Structures are given as structure tokens and as C-alpha cells.
Amino acid sequence: MTELGHIGFIGGGNMGEALIKGLLKSAVPAQQIRVAEPNEARARQLTERYGVICCSESAEVVRQSDLIVLAIKPQIVPMAMPGIAEAFDDSKVLVSIAAGVTTGALEGYFEGAPRVVRVMPNTPALAGAGAAALCPGQHATKDDLATAVHLFEGVGTVHVVNEAQLDAVTGLSGSGPAYVYMVIEAMAAGGVLEGLPMDTALALATQTVLGTAQLVKESGEHPAVLRDKVCSPGGTTIAAVKELEEKGMRAALIKAVSKATKRSRELGKG
Ligand SMILES: NC(=O)C1=CN([C@@H]2O[C@H](COP(=O)(O)OP(=O)(O)OC[C@H]3O[C@@H](n4cnc5c(N)ncnc54)[C@H](O)[C@@H]3O)[C@@H](O)[C@H]2O)C=CC1
Ligand SMILES: O=C(O)[C@@H]1CCC=N1
């Protein structure tokens, strides 16, 4: 067994699956993972795909696990927490990925001093290329934080932030994959409009986004500097950039991150 111990997922939906798949890829054995998933068809699917043990009872999974990943919708949290709290004890750590739900709100479901870590991951964890940020609750130890960092480093990069910053993380990298899918989709559509076959257009758009992100990361240069290197004087790119500026692309993305951040704060209020 790895140092993560037994990992129990409460909820095996989109994000639960992304993390399970990522963990298996990072060499955590399937026998170490339990999933509480009330949707029977979904539970069967997870067992068939990944060999993980699923059951419908959250309390059973909590009892069998050292680290519990809360991967249910924020709106379900108030209903699910009493059952989870009942089976919880001091030896366990709760790692919540529920958008907006604060460590204080989670701690309120328990008696004593529950060890809680709040994380905002994203679905590229499925491909081992996630971006997560996390913060400790008031009773989490340094080891708990290190364990959570270790868990999410298995499926991507991890930043430790203040809890007040986690809503902005949600608006940026938690929801961000959706914005980037829209960019890929729209660029491919532009290619198709100009005569490329869809499969070629999609492959070119995808690789362009991937390669561009890789270059930003590897070069350490500001994206604006790298963008200038693509814009030849009087060339094709500056004509396109002018169009994007006129249509407010950057302002729209800035506003999108803000809207999602605001929604995360609202979810936290219940
Ligand atoms: N989807 C995403 O990109 C991200 C989601 N999150 C957070 O992850 C959490 C889960 O989101 P998704 O996976 O997208 O939702 P989802 O709806 O795909 O998955 C939730 C799963 O929980 C199960 N479930 C419902 N009630 C339950 C209960 N009482 N006990 C155990 N399981 C129960 C459902 O059957 C479902 O399979 C949310 O809190 C969301 O804010 C965080 C980061 C990214
Ligand atoms: O849309 C949502 O609420 C979740 C949180 C971040 C990404 N998906």
C-alpha cells in the first residue's frame, strides 16, 4: 500500500472518476480505492472500468478509508454529511473538492476537531495533467496537507493557497477547462469554415492549445511577449488579434472567471 492508505470517494461522478483514473495511472492500486456511489449503473461502470470496489453506503466507505474524498455536488453536501460524520473518527482526513463549501462549514458537521482539507482540482486530472489548489482546515496537520498535496500531485500540479483564494481558483482552473474546450471547438470550426476537414481542424486546434501552453510553461515568458513573436508586421496574426480585441475576447474571459468565482462564493452560502 502507498503512504496514502485506503482512499474512499464519496461520489463517483465526473470529478471522482477523473481522480480515480489519475490515481490508478500514478500507481495507486485499485484495491486501495473504495467508492460510495448510489447510482447503481454508474457504480457498475466504475468497477468494470477501473476494478475499484463500489457500494451505495457512504458510511461503509468512510469506515474502510483513511482518507475520504468528498466528490458530491455542493447542494448534496448538507444531506450527505451527517452519515459521513457518524462513521468518521480522529484517524481519518476529509478532503473535500465540493465547489464553494468552506472548511468551516464542513467542520461544523463533526464533533471534536475533524481534520479537513479543501481542494479545487480540475478534470484534466483524468489525463494526469490537472491543476489543483488546496488549503487546510483549522484542525488539519502539516502531514494532512502533505498527504493531500501528494494525492493531487499524482494527477497534476498543486498550489497551496489561502482559503479566501479558493473561489477564484474555482473560477479560473476549476471551471477553466470548459473555457478552453470552447476555444478549441471554435478554432476548429474556423478551420472547417475555411475548408479543412473536421478531424484535421480539431487535431490542429488541440495541438496548438497544448503546444502553446507548454511553451508558456517552459519559456517562463509572459504570454504577451510570446504573442508578439507570432505577430509579423502587416501579417496574418495581427489581423486576427485586432478582430479578437474588437470582439472583447480578453474582457469576456476576465468576466467569465469573475462570474464563476462569484457563483462559487454563492454555493458556499448554501
Ligand atoms: N466536474 C468538474 O470539472 C469539477 C467538479 N468539482 C466538484 O466536484 C464535485 C463533484 O462534481 P462532479 O463529479 O462534476 O459531479 P457529478 O454529478 O458528475 O458526480 C457526483 C456523483 O455523486 C453521486 N452522489 C449523489 N449523491 C450521493 C451521496 N449521497 N453519496 C455518494 N454519492 C452521491 C452521484 O450519483 C454522482 O455520480 C462537486 O462538488 C464539484 O463542485 C471540482 C472541480 C472540478
Ligand atoms: O461547475 C462546477 O460547479 C464545478 C466546479 C468547478 C468545475 N465544475
UniProtKB/TrEMBL annotation:
Transmembrane segments: none annotated. Gene3D superfamilies: NAD(P)-binding Rossmann-like Domain, ProC C-terminal domain-like. Residues 163-267 form the Pyrroline-5-carboxylate reductase dimerisation domain. GO terms for cellular component: cytoplasm. GO terms for molecular function: pyrroline-5-carboxylate reductase activity. InterPro entries: 6-PGluconate_DH-like_C_sf, NAD(P)-bd_dom_sf, P5C_Rdtase_cat_N, P5CR-like_CS, P5CR_dimer, Pyrroline-COOH_reductase. Its EC number is 1.5.1.2. One of its GO terms (biological process) is L-proline biosynthetic process. Residues 7-100 form the Pyrroline-5-carboxylate reductase catalytic N-terminal domain. NADP(+) binds at residues 10-15, 71-74. Pathway: Amino-acid biosynthesis; L-proline biosynthesis; L-proline from L-glutamate 5-semialdehyde: step 1/1. Keywords: Amino-acid biosynthesis, Cytoplasm, NADP, Oxidoreductase, Proline biosynthesis. Pfam families: F420_oxidored, P5CR_dimer. Its main location: cytoplasm. It comes from the Bacteria. It is found in: Cytoplasm. It catalyses: L-proline + NADP(+) = (S)-1-pyrroline-5-carboxylate + NADPH + 2 H(+); L-proline + NAD(+) = (S)-1-pyrroline-5-carboxylate + NADH + 2 H(+). It is an enzyme of class 1 (oxidoreductase). Catalyzes the reduction of 1-pyrroline-5-carboxylate (PCA) to L-proline. Belongs to the pyrroline-5-carboxylate reductase family. HAMAP family: P5C_reductase (MF_01925). This is Pyrroline-5-carboxylate reductase. The lineage of its organism: Bacteria, Pseudomonadati, Thermodesulfobacteriota, Desulfuromonadia, Desulfuromonadales. The gene is proC.
